[in-house]
Amino acid sequence: MDGALGSRGAALLGTYADAAGEQGVLRTHGEALVDLARRALAHGVQVNAHAIGSRAVREALDAFEKAAG
Fold first, then answer.
1. Which pTM does this prediction carry?
2. Listed residue (9, 16, 26, 14) closest to 60, CA to CA
3. Bridge partner residues of 58 (DSSP)
């Protein structure tokens, strides 16, 4: 879903304290993950995601919830 904290790549809901305006990089958006998770669940495959930043974690959890519902 996102990058690492040290490189300011983790996707945050807010901005980095030491870099005004920087919010990280969201590499996979929620709808793409919803689609992937639905296809995986239909075939009995477990899905996981790398999500460190607060925005990435929220997007991942929302996508998994939507896919399961």
1. 0.89
2. 26
3. none
Whole-angstrom Cα distance, residue 13 to residue 4?
Answer: 15
Give me the average pLDDT of each 10-residue run along the chain (69 residues): 92 94 91 94 93 96 94
Residue 59's pLDDT is what?
A: 95
Residues near 34 by beta carbon (within 8 Å), at least 6 away in sequence: 63, 66, 67
Q: Is 27 helix (H, G, I), strand (E, B) or coil?
A: coil
- Pick the closest to residue 36 from 1, 67, 15 (CA basis): 67
8 residue type, one letter? R
